[in-house]
Amino acid sequence: MNHVKERKRRRKRRAMRRMFWRSMISLFGISILLLTWNLTSCALRYLSPPEERNHEEYVAGGEGSHTADFSEEAMETAADVSGLLLVNKSHPLEQSYSPDLTRIREYGVEVDDSICEPLKNMLAAGEKEGLSFWIASAYRSTERQRELLDEDIETLIRRGYSYSEAYEEVVKETMPVGCSEHATGLAVDIVSKDYQILDEKQAGTDEIIWLQQNCSQYGFILRYPEGKEDITKVSYESWHFRYVGVNAAKAIMSQGITLEEYLDLAGV
Ligand SMILES: [Zn+2]
User: Ligand 1: distance of its center to the CA of 180 in Å?
Assistant: First the structure.
């Protein structure tokens, strides 16, 4: 009888030992799996294109909690910025480009259909604050751009410039044909109704101060900021606003960067 009991006990002990080792092997297996997963994700992160990493570093390298908040926003918007149209001296607009134009009667100008509502909302919000705006220029056809350029060149030639000197001088202020954002219908020159001259004093008007502070809420950016002339290749234009959508506009204006820099950061 005792002999039988003893055998049963031994069998039980053996079964328990087997269970112990089985669970140890499973635990070991799971740890190996987790370790492999971690190593793979690390490797993938370091194998990702350098632009992406630079972008993260750039964002993280900024100052204060505001920039930390922005990093998520920037990552989110980076995915859909490829739809943003970049037009500058090295990215002329395709000749076939033709915007869907809508006329804004109050100002007698035409803009791309997509910016009509945001533009009206922005100006209405400013007017509620007691400001008065005027749209000095919106959509301009390529032909009109050519006329403007020719007029300015002729003026300088009359003052004694050679054609190439005049051209070089004029394109500092007026975009060459095909390189003007005005041909996209997505850009507007907005001025104070009481001061409509496009010069450095425009920046000091209440209207421009308000626009520069609030434009991003409506999806607009100050396209040619002061101090960024080496990037935009255009002198500071306190009045030229470009529609890029609210997400991109907030990211660009909060960092004080240009559309060129924003697209670079997003790796587009
Ligand atoms: Zn303009």
Answer: 8
